[in-house]
Amino acid sequence: MHTPVVATADADARVMVLREFNPENWTLRFHTDARSPKVAVIGNGAPVAVLFYDQTEKVQLRCRGLARIVCDAAIADKAWQESDTFARRCYLGAPPGEERDEPSSGLPKDVEGRRPSEEQLAPARENFAVMLVTIETMDWYRLSSDGHKRAIFTRGKGQWVTP
Length: 163
Ligand SMILES: Cc1cc2nc3c(=O)[nH]c(=O)nc-3n(C[C@H](O)[C@H](O)[C@H](O)COP(=O)(O)O)c2cc1C
Prior knowledge:
Blueprint: E1 5-8, E2 12-15, E3 20-22, E4 27-33, H1 37-42, E5 46-54, E6 59-70, H2 74-82, H3 85-89, H4 118-121, E7 128-142, E8 149-154, E9 157-161
Antiparallel strand pairs: 1-2, 1-5, 3-4, 4-7, 5-6, 6-7, 7-8, 8-9
Bound molecules: flavin mononucleotide.
């Protein structure tokens, strides 16, 4: 369940890499480009859905919660420092969605296909953002030939429901 789909209220959805789940406060951490359209939609707080599927377990998790974007705080600095230099390289490029005449990574030529140095990466920090999603409800669904099973969880409470 490493790459869920994150859906925003503007009827858009995209795959994102899950970086961390904090079971204390039911918060998911994602990394993204501060210049991306979803960051403008989410801002300081907006509802999102996060959809996971485990093909082996045949389990779907439909999470709903509140997302917020964090650019400057210590939490974003820490996430930035802990990220691999190749992962941080994405934030050196042109903003997501810029039109080009040919296929393009948007990356500067001197880092394309190469691991950038810490010095080269310094200007990319301002384009990096953390997206935190605090889950409010989770809909668990398991496909089974014995009959599908489903339960709805809120923090502190679980309830079986029909599939
Ligand atoms: C496997 C996979 C993983 C991805 N991981 C991320 C990610 O962690 N963060 C991110 O911002 N975009 C990620 N993307 C790109 C997004 O799906 C999306 O195209 C991009 O963020 C622009 O989204 P937006 O236009 O809705 O802002 C990933 C795409 C794929 C295919």
